[in-house]
Amino acid sequence: ESLKVLKMFTDFLSFMVLFNFIIPVSMYVTVEMQKFLGSFFISWDKDFYDEEINEGALVNTSDLNEELGQVDYIFTDKTGTLTENSMEFIECCIDGHKYKGAAQDTDGLSQTDGPLTYFDKADKNREELFLRALCLCHTVEVKTNDTVDGPTESAALTYMSSSPDEIALVKGAKKYGFTFVGIRNGHMRVENQRKEIEEYELLHTLNFDAVRRRMSVIVKTQAGDILLFCKGADSAVFPRVQNHEIELTKAHVERAHVERNAMDGYRTLCVAFKEITPDDYERINRQLIEAKMALQDREEKMEKVFDDIETNMNLIGATAVEDKLQDEAAETIEALHSAGLKVWVLTGDKMETAKSTCYACRLFQTSTELLELTTKTIEESERKEDRLHELLIEYRKKLLHDFPKSTRSLKKAWTEHQEYGLIIDGSTLSLILNSSQDSSSNNYKSIFLQICMKCTAVLCCRMAPLQKAQIVRMVKNLKGSPITLSIGDGANDVSMILESHVGIGIKGKEGRQAARNSDYAVPKFKHLKKLLLAHGHLYYVRIAHLVQYFFYKNLCFILPQFLYQFFCGFSQQPLYDAAYLTMYNICFTSLPILAYSLLEQHINIDTLTSDPRLYMKISGNAMLQLGPFLYWTFLAAFEGTVFFFGTYFLFQTSSLEENAKVYGNWTFGTIVFTVLVFTVTLKLALDTRFWTWINHFVIWGSLAFYVFFSFFWGGIIWPFLKQQRMYFVFAQMLSSVSTWLAIVLLIFISLFPEILLIVLKNVRRRSARNPNLELPMLLSYKHIDNGY
């Protein structure tokens, strides 16, 4: 009994060794090579080249090429991503008066008439104070061709900063007669309208960040006065101005100007100042020095000191800077929507500015009904959380229940024609995510996500970087684990780029942090269209075909070996020679599928980019579902059965050779293996739609190499082999006419179902709805009701 158990164990191990080739170990190597080499095609794409920066696309990782074809949600920044981040100073408002359109040679600011003027014309000193604030409150560096004392020619100045906004404001002040000359020995130098150089000692600076939404500087004038200048978002500056009646009135008018400029799509900043007494400055200076010397939490302590200083300020005015929409940004958004992708805009800008940009880039259509979850809508009630709960319930009811359930056609018509967009700001998002009660928070979050899923587009404004990452994380964790993509250009976008499945960096003007931390970097937002709709589509089809083809050819390879065991007494006798077992995946069938997975274009790239709906055909991992897998499995089982039994019935004849000799075991295996290699290679040739000289070389070259190797391996007596069992087997096998006919017939029978299916599938390639569109449809393509 013990010997029987031992025999069973050894037989089991022997069969494991015999059948281990069904595991596609070489597939891992091929997939890695395909991903690595395929990434170069993205880098080499000339359509991604941008003449302005003299750069093209950059691939930082090669593991996500196929993920580009499975994206469900796109999260995009606004400034520098949808827009050019090329700022131009348009106008300003000082003490409630609107100014714009002054030329360089104009003495001071020119006032424009408008309905928002409230006070008399702003005082000359206030105008100059405003322009000095623009020249002093920034982190701009100046590059001069020649450093000389006295007035500096404007043509010799070049401004550099990580923020294009600051450069635009400094240039705007320069246009009105106040020129920032530079910093020398800790003193900021400004050339005024009288061509005189004013020097201000720079005492302290707290740079702008996305959380505070403002920056401040403390300077000392030549007369010894100490001033604090602050500029930032209206939501960060207005609460910190003085509460005097005159200041509140000015703030009201300034706010009206800011909102009007924001609705026009301009980026707005408010400017304020504060005089600091020498005694107060000594205390402040001591606190700032202690904060700078702190070993831990240095930045937080600095912010705390400035936060205490930035109170009871005097509002001077506001600025409006134009940031034009990027070329083809609107067309790209439309194409992504047509491809079935949901686009969310996450920005730190003011709601009105962001909304205007969303309309301009066609994220929101004129027919889109907007649902707002903002501070303005929630503050209508004393209890913010109660009001938030009411709005969430109201919006969910509108989206889920405002159509007849009984009539399916009406529901379909509603979903096709009625579009909803959601607008939410950072404060409201914090209420949703950080409610006072955990149960309420979870409930708010669930309802909020239900609303988002039903909206065609979502705008999130006044977002901090961490909030952007939180939103991406929320969507990632949805049921079904949708694939997310984030695209941005600045350091404040890095968190959401790292959080999403695929991160795209724009090689913008705010540094290269986003590009360095991303998976892919492109010069412009418009390049996202081809990256997803063409490269993503093709790479997914290629990798899906590669994976299934490997399982297919390995099953074809091992099934005759399995069937052979029923005819050899389960003796673990191999059907193929050891050399064939080793060379099958390494040499005979590896290069054709690698070339296919790199070069195949089953649909022309121009067609993929011009008709975004084709992207939906591969969505939801359509080609790696159970249906396509079963198709490949049954095809392999059928062909493997034909290989073995076709050869088996051939051997039932009494003689195959002209000299009346009967073929042996190794001849039988060689015939099966020959039919196998030719069939799986020709199967790939049938699947190839885009032929290049490389495809021809590797496909026909692999078949020629197999024939050459078989003659070579069987034509020499190898001294290191104990048994010369393959000696002259291949040559004698091909000397029989019956064998030639059998090989050709078995190959045709094996491929006939595939040929028949392809013919039937492509009979209706020319769709009635698209008479000019001919598409060689893949068998595993998903059917969608959109004319395909």
TrEMBL record:
Q: What reaction gets catalysed by this protein?
A: ATP + H2O + phospholipidSide 1 = ADP + phosphate + phospholipidSide 2
Q: What cofactor is this protein dependent on?
A: Mg(2+)
Q: How does it sit in the membrane?
A: Multi-pass membrane protein
Q: Where does Mg(2+) bind?
A: D77, T79, D489, D493
Q: Has keyword rRNA-binding?
A: no
Q: What keywords were assigned to this record?
A: ATP-binding, Magnesium, Membrane, Metal-binding, Nucleotide-binding, Translocase, Transmembrane, Transmembrane helix
- Tell me where on the tree of life, at the top rank, the source sits: Eukaryota
Query: Would the keyword Aminoacyl-tRNA synthetase be found if you checked this record's keyword annotation?
Result: no
Catalytic positions are D77
One GO cellular component assignment for this chain's record is:
plasma membrane
Residues engaged in binding ATP: D77, K78, T79, E166, F208, K231, R267, T347, G348, D349, R462, K468, N492, D493
Q: Name one GO molecular function term.
A: ATPase-coupled intramembrane lipid transporter activity
Q: Where in the cell is it found?
A: Membrane
State the Gene Ontology BP annotations: phospholipid translocation
Write down the top EC class of this protein: translocase
Subcellular location, principal: membrane
Q: Which SUPFAM superfamilies match?
A: Calcium ATPase, transmembrane domain M (SSF81665), HAD-like (SSF56784), Metal cation-transporting ATPase, ATP-binding domain N (SSF81660)
**To which protein family does this belong?**
Belongs to the cation transport ATPase (P-type) (TC 3.A.3) family. Type IV subfamily.
Matching NCBIfam families, A to Z?
ATPase-Plipid, ATPase_P-type
Q: What is this protein called?
A: Phospholipid-transporting ATPase
Q: Which organism is it from?
A: Mustela putorius furo
